[in-house]
């Protein structure tokens, strides 16, 4: 494509380094915030699920992560209620009509489009109690609602391709968020936080941590 090797390498380093760092720096505090505010009952449920499955599977493996229904739902709910990058921009490549529940908007080719993803992820016509963090929202039949979770500039049920503008790290973001929950609740039973807001996202300060008294990190096999 006419890009010099050093320029291409610099862009890849930016993508893998700052871009990922910036995204996780916004996402992880939000995830901890919502789980922390949910309280000790949810913490106990997460700890029970995570520890029992890790024990049964012989470690923190991809198979184990896939069986953690509550953990998966909690991650999706955090992404729904507080998308790490809520604003999206793009120019229309062709004339189009965008439909909402009760209106239609004509967009001309070349016009700049601004998207605010929480309009979709907190739509009261789609989600019950959209402003409330519901840890079990995406369990069981609730998985069908993932098509309305737009944190990645696309539906959670879709995959990024070279033809769309969906986040190419979408699946990695979800995986790392699950791993973070797993590693945390293998070590701790519950915690308390103090949270605030930053220019981009949430800030979280741990006020207390209750350790899991029998945790032995040497006995756990991890994803490699």
UniProtKB/TrEMBL annotation:
Keywords: Heme, Iron, Metal-binding. Coiled coil: none annotated. InterPro entries: Cyt_P450 (IPR001128), Cyt_P450_E_grp-IV (IPR002403), Cyt_P450_sf (IPR036396). CDD domains: CYP74 (cd11071). Its cofactor is heme. GO terms for molecular function: heme binding; iron ion binding; monooxygenase activity; oxidoreductase activity, acting on paired donors, with incorporation or reduction of molecular oxygen. The keyword Iron applies. It comes from the Eukaryota. Heme binds at residue 167. Belongs to the cytochrome P450 family. This is Allene oxide synthase 3. It comes from Vitis vinifera (Grape). The lineage of its organism: Eukaryota, Viridiplantae, Streptophyta, Embryophyta, Tracheophyta.
């Amino acid at each position: 494509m006419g890009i010099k090797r050093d320029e291409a390498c610099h862009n890849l380093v930016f993508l893998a380094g700052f871009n990922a760092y910036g995204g996780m720096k916004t996402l992880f505090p939000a995830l901890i915030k919502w789980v922390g505010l949910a309280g000790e009952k949810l913490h106990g449920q997460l700890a029970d699920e995570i520890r029992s499955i890790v024990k049964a599977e012989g470690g923190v493996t991809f198979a184990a992560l896939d069986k953690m229904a509550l953990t998966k739902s909690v991650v999706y709910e955090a992404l729904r209620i507080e998308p790490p990058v809520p604003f999206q921009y793009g120019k229309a490549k062709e004339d189009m009509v965008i439909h909402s529940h009760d209106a239609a908007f004509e967009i001309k080719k070349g016009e700049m489009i601004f998207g605010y993803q929480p309009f979709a992820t907190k739509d009261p016509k789609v989600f019950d109690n959209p402003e409330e963090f519901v840890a079990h929202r995406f369990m069981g039949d609730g998985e069908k609602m993932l098509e309305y979770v737009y944190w990645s500039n696309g539906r959670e049920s879709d995959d990024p391709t070279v033809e769309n503008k969906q986040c190419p790290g979408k699946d990695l973001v979800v995986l790392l968020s699950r791993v973070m929950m797993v590693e945390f609740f293998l070590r701790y039973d519950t915690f308390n936080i103090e949270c605030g807001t930053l220019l981009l996202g949430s800030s979280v300060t741990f006020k207390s941590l209750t350790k899991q008294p029998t945790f032995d990190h040497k006995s756990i096999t991890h994803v490699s």
